[in-house]
Design brief:
Elements lengths: L7 H6 L7 E5 L6 H14 L8 E5 L3 H9 L1 H8 L6 E6 L7 H11 L3 E7 L9 H5 L3 E5 L5 H8 L1 H20 L12 H14 L3 H5 L3 H23 L5 H13 L7 H8 L3 H13 L3 E6 L13 E4 L2 H7 L12 H14 L6 E6 L5 E8 L2 E7 L11 H10 L3 E6 L4 E5 L2 E7 L4
Parallel strand pairs: 1-4, 1-5, 2-3, 3-4, 6-8, 10-11, 11-13
Antiparallel strand pairs: 6-7, 8-9, 9-10, 12-13
């Protein structure tokens, strides 16, 4: 089987010598099992760990899960090495009840067992796990392919060129480090073509491996149905899948828009607590993400409804049965907004991401807060010829005077100074 490189692998390698267990969370079929196996191969090769000092188990094997659940200490004793460190990999840990307590017990009992754990939801939807593992674990998330990982799977040379520019953009956001805007960019047409496929079919590994549009759609359908069967029905015991599907479809149709609970109730039926519970499930199982409002002025800035976006574009497009090309879609702008949000979300954990909207309905798509630095981002999926700024964006700049502000469009590089703020115009494919 062909393996596509995941950026998270290099990050995980840094922490294998430490005592803390490593927890990898993320949606089903995002590649967590494969990533663990690749980490095991690296331990075996580069770190010279013996095969007998590594054990891989999955809790989708009910027999193994029951043994572990009955007596986790005795279960691990069976595998632990007589001398030296033993590396225990547990896949799909969310199937084990009270997994947080059991992992804590193993950690506190065995100094010579290094745990690697994956879960296709936040390990437990109730979030009870985290309180047991404070100070005992490092947690990571593996999502479907980022745009860089997607490019790397398609064209490594183009991916390298892409990262040279993206690195400058990340330094601007995270460090406030200035860089010169490019002139004519010959790589944009090719990157836009790749971008078109990426935001149409998404970044699930099996989708990226597919060789035809028909196959891609079939794989996405299978991913969604498997998610329903294993996470929603079997694990969470939600039996009204019709209502669940309808909710996903409605959210897909309002991507980038404000969530109206009244409209969701009218469209899907049910009652308020039920719908908010399902929304929480969708968020905890990495299907949707909610963007909350940015506010410093409590009088003029709205503080209520969040906006909704999707972790994966393929699942989103499947829910509304729309895999059309970008040039004939009326939601290309919302997909672009979703894309920029997903990409900047991976820049740093020490960053707050919001949107801005006032009572006068002035709005900015994305506002990043990194320490004391605020960076507003406006997304326009259009061909710009000059440095245009909307009235809403100008209002934010005049109100908060950020050092930098970003306008993302299809293909335009530019720069404009407004008071104390440098407004940079950057092609969205570089986010």
């Amino acid at each position: 089987m062909k393996y596509f490189e995941r950026n998270l692998l290099e990050e995980l390698k840094k922490w294998t010598k430490r005592r803390e267990m490593i927890i990898i969370k993320g949606p089903r079929q995002s590649g967590k099992t494969t990533l663990m196996k690749k980490l095991g191969e690296w331990l075996s090769g580069d770190m010279s760990v013996k095969p007998e000092d590594m054990t891989f188990i999955t809790f989708e094997d009910r027999e193994e899960m029951e043994k572990f659940s009955t007596d986790p200490v005795d279960f691990v004793k069976r595998y632990a090495s007589d001398n030296g460190m033993h590396y225990l990999f547990i896949d799909e840990a969310q199937y084990c009840r009270d997994i947080g307590q059991k992992l804590k017990l193993i950690y506190d009992t065995y100094d010579d067992v290094k745990l690697f754990v994956t879960g296709s939801s936040s390990l437990e939807i109730t979030a009870e796990t985290s309180k047991y593992l404070v100070g005992r674990s490092f947690s990571f998330e593996l999502h479907p392919f980022s745009f860089h990982e997607f490019l790397n799977a398609r064209d490594k040379k183009l991916a390298r060129l892409f990262m040279e520019t993206k690195s400058d953009l990340m330094k601007l956001f995270l460090e406030g480090k200035e860089f010169k805007s490019r002139g004519k960019d010959v790589h944009i047409p090719e990157l836009l073509k790749m971008y078109g496929e990426y935001v149409t079919y998404g970044g699930y590994p099996e989708v990226v491996k597919s060789t035809s549009d028909e196959e891609r759609v079939m794989v996405i359908k299978n991913i969604f149905n498997t998610y329903l069967e294993k996470d929603v029905i079997s694990y969470l015991q939600i039996t009204d899948t019709g209502k669940f599907r309808k909710l996903v479809s409605v959210l897909s149709s309002i991507t980038g828009g404000l969530v109206s609970y009244d409209k969701l109730l009218k469209s899907c039926g049910g009652y308020f607590k039920e719908i908010t519970g399902l929304l929480d499930v969708l968020e905890q199982t990495y299907v949707v993400k909610f963007l909350r409002p940015f506010h410093k002025n409590m009088v003029t800035e709205l503080r209520k409804s969040p906006k909704v976006y999707f972790h994966d574009y393929g699942l989103r497009n499947y829910a509304i049965n729309n895999f059309n090309a970008l040039d004939i879609r009326d939601d290309a702008g919302k997909l672009a907004e979703n894309f920029v949000l997903n990409e900047v979300s991976s820049y740093s954990e020490n960053m707050f991401i919001n949107f801005w909207r006032t009572t006068a309905k002035a709005e900015v798509d994305i506002v990043l807060t990194i320490g004391e630095r605020i960076v507003p981002i406006e997304v326009k999926f259009e061909n710009m010829k000059e440095e245009k700024i909307t009235r809403s964006f100008l209002s934010f700049i005049e109100t908060y005077e950020p050092e930098f502000a970003i306008v993302a469009s299809k293909d335009f590089w530019g720069e404009r100074k407004i008071g104390k703020t440098t407004v940079k115009f950057i092609p969205l494919v570089y986010f």
